[in-house]
Amino acid sequence: MSVLSKYLSVIVWALAMLVLAVPASAQAQRDIAQDSAPFVYEVERLENGGGVGAPLDLDTPMGLVESFMAAGEAGEFERASAALDFANIDTSARAMSRRDVTSALYDLLHRSVVIDWAILPDRPDAVDTETSSKDPMAGTARRSVTLAQIELDGRSIPIRLAREQAPGGEPVWLFSRQTVANVPALYAVYGPTRFEKSLPSALREQAFWTLAWWEVIALPLILLAAALAALLTHLAIRRFRGRFRDDVVVHGVLRAMHLPAVLLAFAASFALVRETFFRLSGPVKDLLDPLQLILIIAAFLGIVLSIIEAMFELATDRRTDALEDPDNGEDRDYYTKLSAIRRIVTALSMLAAIGFLLVASNISSTLGFSILASAGVFGLVLAFAGRKLLGDIMSSVQIAFAQTARIGDAVQYEGQWCFVEKIGFTHLRLRTWDERRVIAPLSDFTNKSFENWTKRDASLMMHVELELDNRADVEKLRGPFREFVEQDEDVVDPEDASCEVVGQTARAMVVRFMARSSDPKCGWKMHCRLRERMLGVAAGLDAAAANEPVPAYLPREREVRMDLARKDEGA
């Protein structure tokens, strides 16, 4: 039994070694095959140029681009044509020679592309040795490398390098035949204008960075032309505002759109001059394109939102008295909800503009944006600002639809009697009874309690408190008070009026006179008249009390002290 077990164990061990050996052998065969058969595009024949001067370095992607750009900078386009596969160019663009296509490709790379040398491997197999191990392409041989992307007719056209091999030849890296076929169309859009071609050759020479001398001179001229267009727009709108000064609607709309229109004139003129006469190149173009688009979108958005804001302001300002009417609750509800809808439309418009900006421009690939994004600063700022802004917008919408404070409502805020004049994104604008404007944060109206005097019923119980002498006969005051509430036109319910003693100290007693008014405005005036009337009655009764023990009405603490002082002097 032990012998059989020993034979079985030997057989199992042999099978296990065989199973482990087969994958290792297959892996070795695969590695050998990969090394002996390079990862290339096999073509019938190579259709690249060259043959004039020293050959280009076509062994690696980095060598290809470096040697091509060096030959192009030297003007040796016949030699540089060795880097291009012209297999598709003869049928797609007969109007351009191979030398012209090579020159056009160099101009595109020099003017319109920022070459990221870090993505160009310096290995024949194009293995990226710098990438993270988590990258699925890490350690993988490639036969195609994308150098850049250029927009054309709403789609991205890649500038691609390909590793090609003809029968019996060595593998070489070239600009792919599809990339070369796209060069004429790209050059027609991104190449120099007729005006640029007419400039002297000295001005077209490179000055610094990727800028030619004519670009260094042209950039200030473009800015000057745009500033001149903005100034003319400013003067024209100001003149129109003067002509329509008597027309409140037109004047208000022109005033609201004045600054955005000037901004639009500047950005549009800048873009028009650039596209018509000067096509700036390289990093300058990558920086100016998104900034230009941001200005144009911001200007259009500003014009639309300014007109909406101006129309709403005019509608509410012209109906201020009507909105504050205590019986006009429907209009207050309507304009408050309209204000909320306006804010929602404004927020959606801003989000749509930001979305359009991100889609229309490749802003994430610009230098400044990339620096901010890599540092995380831009994301943190956007997140914080967006959270705060979204919270304020939701608070304003909550106030508007819950109608805790409506436009035209009378509220008491921090001890001040105010009317709600505007509900904005982050603040409420309140108008005090003496025509001052109080800007209150929305959080105070969503997180704290406040008094709304016209929420359901505009009528308000007003009260006057007087400090009278403890010996005063309050009953003699009730008759004049009753006459006042029955005769005053702002007292809506005389039966609801009352005169009561609500407090007492050793010095005086507190008498409160209360009467209901139709609304806070009338109530304030009635409150002042009531105070004046009752003080006059008390003063008259007090003057009649010449001798004791006739009751006094006004506190006589000062007289008592003077009497005591005289007695002390006499003693």
Task: Summarize the topology.
Blueprint: H1 2-36, E1 41-42, H2 61-73, H3 77-80, H4 89-92, H5 98-112, E2 144-152, E3 155-165, E4 172-175, H6 177-190, H7 194-197, E5 206-208, E6 211-212, H8 213-243, H9 248-256, H10 258-276, H11 282-317, H12 320-323, H13 329-360, H14 367-375, H15 377-402, E7 410-413, E8 416-423, E9 427-432, E10 437-441, H16 443-447, E11 451-452, E12 460-468, H17 475-487, E13 498-504, E14 509-517, H18 520-544, H19 557-570
Parallel strand pairs: 1-3
Antiparallel strand pairs: 2-3, 3-4, 5-6, 7-8, 7-11, 8-9, 9-10, 12-14, 13-14
Helix pairs in contact: 2-5, 5-6, 5-11, 8-9, 8-10, 9-11, 10-11, 11-13, 13-15, 17-18
InterPro entries: LSM_dom_sf, MscS_beta-dom_sf, MscS_channel_2nd
Transmembrane segments: 211-232, 253-273, 293-312, 340-360, 366-385
Domain Mechanosensitive ion channel MscS: 389-455
